[in-house]
Design brief:
- By secondary structure, the protein is mainly α.
- The protein is built from 11 helices and no strands.
- Helices cover 85% and strands 0% of the residues.
Length: 202
């Protein structure tokens, strides 16, 4: 029964977020960058909302960036408080070491560039690394805002300029697209649960 309820619940949440518009982007951005990574969902919702032309498209880019920055800062703050041990509990030791080396080498770019890259590039490890390595709060927020701002400006701009084609695509392939998004959300939830169990074990 629960397996049948989860997709229905996800579709209901998705519809509610669409109706909310900009505030829905903020809520989704917080979840996507802190609680459970929902791969691609932010880009899809930003494009779809901008395609509807209900508000000027820069508004949706701004709200998506705001949500992403708030969510990213939550993850950064938790890792900053817990130190490297928190990062190693969330990631494997090998992966934590790899991300730390990249961060030591690139600094500002180690946050800005991953924030700019589209899915399925994993971004949360870099948020954790920034906090665990006590990276400057102001530089972190600047890098995160720059990367996410560019990414969602491009997404909203594409939605605005190619709105008619995008809305036709969504109306035609709505169910398969929702199936993919739900599948990605379930994978994210399972991975987060596994990480939680590891933390409890540790």
């Amino acid at each position: 029964m629960l397996l049948h309820l989860h997709p229905l619940l996800a579709m209901s949440v998705w519809r509610h977020l669409r109706r909310m518009g900009g505030p829905g982007l903020v809520l989704l951005g917080i979840a996507d960058n802190s609680v459970i990574p929902l791969t691609g969902s932010m880009d899809v919702l930003t494009i779809w909302l901008a395609a509807r032309h209900r508000e000027p498209w820069p508004y949706y880019a701004l709200m998506a960036t705001l949500g992403a920055v708030i969510g990213g800062y939550i993850t950064y703050s938790l890792a900053r408080k817990g130190g490297k041990e928190t990062m190693e509990r969330k990631l494997s030791k090998r992966r934590a070491k790899k991300v730390s080396k990249a961060f030591e080498r690139w600094g500002f770019g180690a946050v800005a560039i991953p924030a700019l890259l589209p899915p399925p590039f994993p971004f949360v490890p870099f948020l954790l690394a920034a906090g665990a390595m006590q990276y400057s709060r102001n530089k972190f927020l600047g890098a995160l805002t720059l990367g996410r701002g560019i990414r969602y400006t491009v997404a909203a701009g594409l939605g605005f300029h190619y709105g008619a084609h995008i809305l036709r695509f969504f109306s035609r392939y709505y169910k398969p697209a929702m199936g993919i998004l739900i599948g990605l959300a379930v994978i994210g939830a399972v991975m987060s649960f596994i990480q939680y169990l590891r933390m409890r074990k540790t």
